[in-house]
Automatic annotation (TrEMBL):
Protein residues bound to substrate: H112
Residue intervals of the NADP-dependent oxidoreductase domain: 20-262
PANTHER family: 2,5-DIKETO-D-GLUCONIC ACID REDUCTASE, NADP-DEPENDENT OXIDOREDUCTASE DOMAIN-CONTAINING PROTEIN
Site feature: Lowers pKa of active site Tyr: K79
SUPFAM superfamilies for this protein: NAD(P)-linked oxidoreductase
A GO molecular-function descriptor: oxidoreductase activity, acting on the CH-OH group of donors, NAD or NADP as acceptor
Entry's family note: Belongs to the aldo/keto reductase family.
Protein name per the record: Aldo/keto reductase
Active site location: Y54 (proton donor)
UniProt entry keywords in alphabetical sequence: NADP, Oxidoreductase
Species lineage: Bacteria, Bacillati, Bacillota, Bacilli, Bacillales
Length: 276
């Protein structure tokens, strides 16, 4: 069980991935995102998660370049956007992201959404990038069980990570089980239910019981489910606060209380029904 911000999970190819990272969705390109990443690195975070569609890879790269933490101690994730899916276009999109980040390699590259008729070709491109050493690990995002099965059916490499919407209102039990059995590391985006976490009575009650913030309760719940989590914030005090989750443990009973909040409610799009 994760006891420190430097603790990590080991992916199915042996690569170490931190349990906690900073997400930068909606962080503005330029000073805002650069400062957020710099604050996170200063607070001990070693994992940063961006994506081509976020439009802030240059700012993320700038913070990495200006950091005094050695590159090999950082874990940088970016993602392939839907409009660039397909074999050749995925290879070109990766190269563009890599250059914007100013990196020689990326630690984790994900297919952002399962675009019908395209994601298997995209996966072949990711396998090529992985074999050639441009990326240390490859994975997917927003893939349901059937999407994963489809990719695995005729791929050489099983995805190492599946990053999905995951929080107490959307516990995705079947998907989590499938990922564990197949050694695919699950990762949570939107872990704080897009801010709704502070309105949930059960979470507030547990926050009081453990003397923690509602966000810290839910992020700890992620870790105890062995799900990597990447809360997003651009405020330094919140970035520090979100990392203060390694000095307590939720009881089995309280884990169940949070699990029982599930209502299969998505704040984001449905991976089986999206049009972008």
């Amino acid at each position: 069980m994760a006891k420190h911000i430097s603790d990590y999970t080991v992916l199915n190819n042996g690569v170490k991935m931190p349990w906690l990272g900073l997400g930068v969705w909606k962080a503005k390109e330029g000073e805002e995102v650069t400062n957020a990443v710099a604050s996170a690195i200063k607070a001990g975070y070693r994992s940063i998660d961006t994506a081509a569609v976020y439009g802030n890879e240059i700012g993320v790269g700038k913070a990495i370049q200006e950091s005094d933490v050695p590159r090999e101690e950082l874990f940088i994730t970016t993602k392939l956007w839907n409009g660039s899916q397909g074999y050749e276009s995925a290879l070109a999109a990766f190269e563009e992201s890599r250059k914007k980040l100013g990196l020689e390699y990326v630690d984790l590259y994900l297919i952002h959404w399962p675009v019908k008729g395209k994601y298997k070709e995209s996966w072949k491109a990711l396998e090529k990038l992985y074999k050639e050493g441009w990326v240390r690990a490859i994975g997917v995002s927003n893939f349901q069980v059937h999407h994963l099965q489809d990719v695995m059916e005729d791929s050489e490499i099983t995805p190492m990570v599946n990053q999905v919407e995951f929080h107490p209102y959307l516990t995705q039990k079947e998907l989590l089980r499938f990922c564990k059995v197949n050694k695919i590391q699950m990762e949570a985006w939107s872990p704080l239910m897009q801010g709704e976490v502070v309105k949930e009575p059960t979470v507030l009650e547990l926050a009081e019981k453990y003397n923690k913030t509602p966000a810290q309760i839910v992020l700890r719940w992620d870790l105890q489910h062995e799900v990597v989590t990447i809360p997003k914030s651009v405020k330094e005090h919140r970035i520090i606060e979100n990392a203060n989750i390694f000095d307590f443990e939720l009881s089995a009973e309280d884990m169940e209380k949070l699990d029982s909040l599930n209502k299969n409610h998505r704040f984001g799009p449905d991976p089986d029904n999206f049009d972008f």
